[in-house]
Every structure is written in structure tokens, then in C-alpha cells.
């Protein structure tokens, strides 16, 4: 299966023209058809009651839930198929096709070639061909579950089903067409005779659908927390919305601490005087429900002095919020990359922060009850408490590993330019050594006071990793140390640079584990010589930080994506 994925990766260019489709689906169907509301292999039509229906050839995964208007479980094939079965591709016309992490695009492939490509690949679940008359052209293929099919639309989606389904589906469609003719005639008569009745009924249906959606979402998340986390494992408080409103002074702008991919972050104070930080998921968030549930189920099970503490969450009405302990000194990037504030972080504090981050990662990789890969370690995700102790935060992109698992891959590469290792950015492979690479970048940034991404030097076009490597091979590593430091331990600084370069080596197997890193930082034992780092050259790029995802340039309720361009 790995070979098949790489063939597709090489053959297709990444879809970059889907943002307009995303906006259309959101605007036409409103909040009722939010992402994954109907689950897998179902279509959503906000004008219908019920809102969700299974695609032809599929049935509700949980009929009892669908009877209760809880659709998030989605649908499953009525007749399962495997690679040796005879299949057909069933046309679902008048839809807005989904945009998912396994959607790939090539604008030069014809309609027939598009079908052939999908039929030859057993993992291909559906294909679509864009209409050149509408200013678009090309072939789209999906390789995982189809999530978020919208009706009505102007596109045709061809879904793989068992050939034995065809006769039954054609008979069903013929019956539906006859019924629809009668319904249309009756509806026109009703509209002519009683327009006001139609208006009132439609308004009530929409109100009810909105209520069902809200209650379904709240129930779904609460069930997820209970079932996924386990009551005995989770020390998590569920806060009432009114409590958070009061604590933040109704989300006053004066209490806003900043804004991230998740949404705005507010400072709050409970009635007993406890200070909190509230991350409020916004509708236009680059992150979504997947990241929200990820943080709830992961951080609530973790207890370490170098990890931020999740106090609880709030899931009520249209709100999803995470409540953390308040960090009065904000994040590491607030100090380290600011010429004036960086003076506050003397060498003793910087060395302490480097060691604390290492111990936090070691806990995630080895000592916690779960083996966790953070996948988005960066300066802005390291918070500082009142004593400047570092605490790793933002576990929305984190993944857990089984005890015997060493690496995994993904079609959705999510992270931040400048911190991602080559094997992850290019091939989607991630492991504990991915976090080690990000840590190495962070160490070099802390020592130098400079960002890796956007780093500039009058003598060359290397990034910070390339600059550190150049100084190393020229035996001038001490020149990397931040010149705003009044004094520092040359032994500790050079050892940090050495460890940092070992962590950012091109090949993941050559990077040390975090347990080895902790020992390296706390001892004087001889260290191996580093090899050339990965991503050590790059074009001059804007310094603004950007999180990236490999499968396109669009944003939805649960998916945040930006085109990645490995360098």
C-alpha cells in the first residue's frame, strides 16, 4: 500500500483551486451542513427533512441514531467490496464534491482517463471531472471515506459500488423520479394557494433543524469525551457557558491575549480568583472539531511540569472552548525574537528553557501513559509561567503511537514552515524523530535569538540551520550565540549548538532520541559529530509564521489547509 500512495503522490499535483468551492458550500447550505454533520458516505441538503441521506449503495451505520436525527455516524456500504470484486461507478449528479485529505488533482487528465485511473486503484473510492465550460478542468480522485457531500450543486461525483447493486439502485431512482414529479406539482399548487403557510412551515423546519444540529453536536462531543477518554482516566471539568462569559467579562477585547489558528484566546478569572486562559473555537478557524477533540482527550491525560495543564472545556450552543491554566509570561516567541524583550531571557533562563522543553518531549515520547508525537513544536507553542518555566502547548495536531509503533504516515501534512523535518514535509512520514528535528530548530533559535524561517545574512542565502552548519564546519560556532546576551557559559552554549545540529540531521535515524538529548545536555560526555542538516537552504521568505497542510488551500469546519512547497 505504501508504494501505491507514492505513485499517486508523484503523478498528481496538489489541488489548489478549491477555496471558491468551499465558500460556495458554506454559503448555500448554511450552518446546517457543517463539516461531517452527516458523517461518511452521506449527502447533506439543508432544504430537505431529514437533512442527511445515504448515498445510493450505502445504508446508515447506526439506524437507531438516524431515527433520532443523529447523523454523525454516517453510512456504510450495503455490500462490502474488495479489490477482486466487480464494481461500477455510480453517478451522483447535482452535488458539491467533498474536499478531503485524500483528494488529488490533475488538470490535464481527460474524463475517460480519470475513470480508468480510479478503477485501476483499489483504494480509490470516487472520482470527479471538472467542467471546462465553468472555467475549471481536470480530474479529482478520493482515496478515503467521502465526507461532506453537499446538495444541491453543479458537479457530478462518481462513487465506487459493487456491480450487483446497480439494478436495485436504478429501480430505486426510477421510483424516486416519479415521486418527485408528483411532489413538484403538489408543491407548486401549495405555493400558489397558501404561500404564507409554506413560509411559516419552512421557517419552523429550519429552526428545528438548527436545534437538532446543535444538540447533536453537543451530544456527539460529550459522548466522544466519555467513550474515548474514559471517566476514570480524565480529570476534566465541563464548564457552563455562562461561567466562562462571566470569567472573561463577556469576552472583552481588553481580555484578549492573542489569536491563533484555533481562534481568539482570552484571559479570565473565576469567582475564586483562579486565572485561566480560554481558547475559543471560531467559525473561521484554521483548526476544527478534530483538533478540539484531540486536545481534550490527550492533554487531560497528561501531567508534567513542562506541559500546559488543561483545566476543562465548554461545549454549549454553538461554542467549543478549551480552558487552560493561565501563563502570565505568554509564549517563548514573545521574548526570544524581540530585540528589547530578549534581554529578559539571560543565558541561565535560556538553558533552563532548553532543558525543560527536552524533558517535556521525553515525557510525551516515553514516560507518559500514551506515546505522543506533538507534530507542531515551535516557539509560539512553548508557554512560560511566572518563573519562566517552559510548558509545551497546543496538542491539536498530536498523534498517539502504539507501544511497538515507530512511525506512521499521513496524507495531511500539518505543521509550521521552518520546524518540519524533510521526511514529514515531503513524504508525510512522522515519528518521534520528527519532534526531535523541531526541537533542534528550537534550540538553535533560542541560542541565536533568530528565527529559522526568514533568517537573513549579508554573506549568504542560508536559513538559520544552514548558517549554524556553516559556522560549525568553519569552527566558528560561538558566533551563533545571541549578541544581546551580556554573558553566557561558552561550554553550555556550544554544547546546545552541537546537540541542536545533531537533532536536525537529514536522516531521522541519525537523530538522537529525546532521552539521549536530555543526557547530552546534562553531562560532559563526548558527542558524535553532526552531519548536514535537512532543509538547510531556502529562498528568502516572509517571516510570518504559517501552519501548513499538504492537501490543498482551503479551510473547513474540521480541516485547515495551506499549500505546502518543500524546499
Description of the molecule:
The chain is of the alpha+beta class. The chain folds into 3 domains: 42-171, Hepatocyte Growth Factor (3-Layer(bba) Sandwich); 229-325, Phosphorylase Kinase, domain 1, CATH 3.30.200.20; 330-537, Transferase(Phosphotransferase) domain 1 (Transferase(Phosphotransferase), domain 1, Orthogonal Bundle). It has helices spanning 2-11, 19-29, 63-67, 111-120, 166-193, 195-229, 241-247, 289-299, 332-336, 347-367, 422-427, 432-448, 464-473, 490-503, 514-522; strands spanning 42-44, 52-54, 58-60, 75-77, 87-96, 104-106, 126-130, 138-142, 149-162, 237-238, 256-259, 264-269, 275-280, 310-316, 319-325, 371-373, 382-384, 390-392, 399-401, 407-409, 415-416, 429-431, 547-548. Strands 1, 2, 5, 6, 7, 8 and 9 form a 7-stranded mixed β-sheet that branches. A 6-stranded mixed β-sheet has the order 10-14-15-13-12-11, sandwiched between helices. A two-stranded antiparallel sheet has the order 3-4. Helix 5 (166-193) crosses helix 6 and helix 10 packs antiparallel against helix 15. The longest helix has 35 residues, at 195-229. It starts with a helix and ends in a 19-residue tail after the last strand. This is non-specific serine/threonine protein kinase. Residues 556-567 have a biased composition (Polar residues). Its EC number is 2.7.11.1. Residues 544-555 have a biased composition (Low complexity). It is an enzyme of class 2 (transferase).
Amino acid at each position: 500500500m505504501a508504494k501505491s500512495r507514492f505513485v499517486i503522490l508523484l503523478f498528481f499535483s496538489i489541488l489548489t483551486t478549491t477555496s471558491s468551492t468551499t465558500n460556495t458550500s458554506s454559503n448555500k447550505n448554511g450552518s446546517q451542513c457543517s463539516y461531517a454533520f452527516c458523517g461518511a458516505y452521506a449527502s447533506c441538503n439543508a432544504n430537505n427533512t431529514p437533512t442527511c441521506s445515504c448515498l445510493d449503495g450505502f445504508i446508515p451505520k447506526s439506524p437507531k441514531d438516524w431515527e433520532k436525527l443523529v447523523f454523525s455516524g454516517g453510512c456504510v456500504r450495503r455490500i462490502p467490496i474488495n479489490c477482486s470484486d466487480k464494481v461500477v461507478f455510480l453517478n451522483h449528479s447535482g452535488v458539491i464534491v467533498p474536499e478531503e485529505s485524500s483528494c488529488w488533482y490533475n488538470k490535464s487528465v481527460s474524463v475517460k482517463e480519470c475513470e480508468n485511473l480510479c478503477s485501476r486503484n483499489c483504494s480509490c473510492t470516487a472520482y470527479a471531472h471538472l467542467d471546462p465550460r465553468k472555467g475549471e478542468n481536470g480530474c479529482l480522485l478520493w482515496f478515503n471515506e467521502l465526507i461532506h457531500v453537499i446538495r444541491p450543486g453543479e458537479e457530478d461525483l462518481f462513487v465506487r459500488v459493487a456491480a450487483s447493486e446497480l439494478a436495485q439502485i436504478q429501480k430505486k431512482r426510477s421510483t424516486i423520479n416519479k415521486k418527485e414529479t408528483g411532489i413538484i406539482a403538489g408543491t407548486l399548487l401549495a405555493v400558489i394557494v397558501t404561500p404564507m403557510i409554506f413560509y411559516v412551515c419552512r421557517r419552523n423546519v429550519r429552526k428545528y433543524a438548527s436545534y437538532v444540529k446543535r444538540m447533536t453536536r453537543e451530544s456527539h462531543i460529550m459522548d466522544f469525551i466519555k467513550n474515548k477518554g474514559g471517566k476514570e482516566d480524565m480529570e476534566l471539568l465541563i464548564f457552563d457557558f455562562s461561567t466562562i462569559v462571566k470569567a472573561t467579562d463577556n469576552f472583552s477585547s481588553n481580555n484578549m491575549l492573542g489569536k491563533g489558528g484555533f481562534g481568539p484566546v482570552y484571559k479570565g478569572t473565576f469567582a475564586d480568583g483562579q486565572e485561566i486562559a480560554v481558547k475559543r473555537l471560531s467559525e473561521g478557524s484554521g483548526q476544527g472539531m478534530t483538533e478540539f477533540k484531540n486536545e481534550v482527550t490527550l492533554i487531560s491525560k497528561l501531567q508534567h511540569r513542562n506541559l500546559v495543564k488543561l483545566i476543562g472545556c465548554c461545549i454549549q450552543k454553538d461554542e467549543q472552548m478549551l480552558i487552560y491554566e493561565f501563563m502570565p509570561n505568554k509564549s517563548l516567541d514573545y521574548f526570544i525574537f524581540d530585540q528589547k524583550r530578549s534581554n529578559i531571557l539571560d543565558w541561565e533562563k535560556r538553558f533552563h528553557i532548553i532543558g525543560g522543553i527536552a524533558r517535556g518531549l521525553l515525557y510525551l515520547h516515553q514516560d507518559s501513559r500514551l506515546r505522543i508525537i506533538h507534530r507542531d513544536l515551535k516557539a509560539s507553542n512553548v508557554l512560560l509561567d511566572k518563573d519562566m518555566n517552559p510548558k509545551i502547548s497546543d496538542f491539536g495536531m498530536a498523534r498517539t503511537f502504539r507501544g511497538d509503533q515507530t512511525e506512521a504516515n499521513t496524507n495531511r501534512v500539518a505543521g509550521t514552515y521552518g520546524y518540519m523535518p524533510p521526511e514529514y514535509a515531503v513524504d508525510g512520514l512522522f515519528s518521534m524523530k520528527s519532534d526531535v528535528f523541531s526541537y533542534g530548530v528550537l534550540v538553535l533559535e533560542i541560542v541565536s535569538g533568530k528565527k529559522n524561517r526568514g533568517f537573513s545574512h549579508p554573506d549568504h542565502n542560508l536559513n538559520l540551520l544552514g548558517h549554524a552548519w556553516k559556522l560549525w564546519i568553519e569552527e566558528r560556532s560561538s558566533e551563533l550565540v545571541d549578541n544581546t546576551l551580556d554573558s553566557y557559559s561558552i561550554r553550555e552554549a556550544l554544547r546546545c549548538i552541537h546537540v541542536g545540529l545533531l537533532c536536525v540531521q537529514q536522516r531521522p535515524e541519525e537523530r538522537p532520541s529525546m532521552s539521549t538529548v536530555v543526557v547530552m545536555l546534562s553531562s560532559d560526555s563526548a558527542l558524535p559529530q553532526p552531519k548536514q542538516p535537512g532543509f538547510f537552504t531556502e529562498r528568502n521568505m516572509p517571516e510570518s509564521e504559517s501552519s501548513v497542510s499538504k492537501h490543498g488551500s482551503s479551510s473547513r469546519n474540521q480541516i485547515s489547509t495551506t499549500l505546502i512547497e518543500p524546499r
